């Protein structure tokens, strides 16, 4: 059932990235890393559909934080909402990431604001870990300080070379694996579809597995409309079936995802 969330803060995080905090204690009590909320944006009266946002952070006193980038009419409207405005929130929704265990090295691979969807993993991890964060340029690298405060080793990659390694974030994977060959690694990832497909293939080629958050456009958010489907492996003639990211995901094992022949 939808719940209400009063906006406490809604401010610029960096460039076109914003951070909004809702007072949503009921949702906070139930949230696990990797889940999302489906938001009905107040004052967006000519648009009926909700917008899905990954839950970035929660607090014991009921503050729920999401990070978003202004990319269209919905997020533009959200960025203009002042504290005190109340929105309808549906959540937490979705299949979450598993929790890191003691004596495991958590390695998070994030693209763009995939760092927001994976921050709670680092916050709740019993062990220090590694964040591999990729983006188009330095201005798209966000939340690195928050991961560092969780004692995560943050390594960055940008396509234009403005910060860290010049290239793709998946280029950093082999070094992490070789440096930690004596450890049990648990991989987590969220980012653009192309990055996730490349990462999943790389892990499987090396006999490893991981958890991928297949961030996909959603409409209903409850599994009724089948607009957010992705292909997962299946024991049938085609070798795959459609899975709804809002219900069966957004988190899937890399070994469950169907990778088309390239």
Q: What does it look like?
A:
This protein has 262 residues and is of the alpha/beta class. It has helices spanning 25-30, 73-79, 114-124, 144-149, 173-179, 193-205; strands at residues 3-14, 17-23, 36-40, 51-54, 57-58, 63-69, 86-93, 104-111, 130-135, 153-158, 165-166, 184-190, 210-213, 229-233, 240-244, 251-253. The strands form three sheets. A seven-stranded antiparallel β-sheet has the order 4-3-7-1-2-6-5. A seven-stranded mixed β-sheet has the order 11-10-9-8-12-13-16, with helices on both faces. A two-stranded antiparallel sheet has the order 14-15. It is globular and about 50 Å long. The longest helix is centred in the last third of the chain and has 13 residues, at 193-205. It has six helices and 16 strands. It folds into two domains: 3-93, Elongation Factor Tu (Ef-tu), domain 3 (Beta Barrel); 104-215, Nucleotide-binding domain of ferredoxin-NADP reductase (FNR) module (Rossmann fold).
Strand content: 25-35%
User: How many individual helices?
Assistant: 6
What is the level-2 CATH architecture name of the largest domain? 3-Layer(aba) Sandwich
Shape, per Cα inertia axes: globular
Largest sheet, described in full? 7 strands, antiparallel
Output the radius of gyration: 18 Å
* CATH-defined superfamily of the largest domain: Nucleotide-binding domain of ferredoxin-NADP reductase (FNR) module
